[in-house]
Amino acid sequence: MSANKLRWGVLGCAGIAIRAVIPGTKLSETGEVAAIASRGIEKAQETAAKLDIPKAYGSYEELLADGEIDAVYIPLPNHLHKEWTIRAAEAGKHVLCEKPAALTAAEMEEMAAACERAGVTFAEAFMYRYHPRYAMIKEIIASGEIGELRGFHGTFTFNSAGNSNNVRFKQSMGGGSLYDVGVYPLTAARMILDCEPEAATMHALFSPQHDNVDMMASGLVEFSGGVALTFDCGMWAFGRNNLEILGTDGRIELPRAYTAGQDAGDNFFVTTKSGRREVEVPRVNQYALQADAFARCVLNGEPLPYSPADAIAGMRVVDACLTSARERRRVEL
Q1: Which domain of life is it from (predicted)?
Q2: I need a labelling partner for 319 at 20 to 30 A (CA). Which of 51, 186, 209, 223 fits?
């Protein structure tokens, strides 16, 4: 490990890694992508050549055995997150794991314990939380401009139902819309309120055509003080990706709430009785910011903004939502 660069290895050639995380990490101030692995050497070599990555491995084990790799990013299907996080930790690698980090809170507790035993850093890859617009939103809320918080409404939907081979549609691989996109509004409300919810009630469409995973889900998540998150998420619905924060004296509207790019579409809007204003945000790459925050923790000992304990708490909420959807009842946390 050099004094100012973290050497990353990537376990798998998933689309999110190729499209976003690897390019973002290469734009970071503190990271370099040094190796990529796949289950076959051809795929690894093809991806390495495409993205100018120095090393390619035909197995995940080979990459973990490379002493020149400091940290790994894991974009594997959800059901493999636990195994490869633990194996990476045991190999002495720091771990950035794609969301959802686990399938249950119990799995996440095992992963966190393994990383703690090995003395390595662990983080769940919710890139949107590193975008400065969320700090700006929290400052506006703290200023009192929109009054007391009354509620949140979040959406994240898309339609890929025709792709029968999608791992998101396989129960055994951790498929379903709550795991895939519902976790975004759930984490956003928890992050902005800086507290954990008290109960969840969900209704979902479990589709026999898609291995009975939840292809659409709508929910109510209760926080203290009468504040609630209402949200919906889906993989078989028209695309939406928004967050509204409602106060007694105004509201904040956040388009493209979780998939910010680097253009004017990332601005947000504040509406009060004085009118509606657009708040301009910095043009940044949130994947690069995520990589830098992780590297500063590893290289300089700076605390992570979101600890393994946060990932465990987040999975408890997902557990409650899935139980509620399956059993058609309110679940207390």
Answers
A1: Bacteria
A2: 209
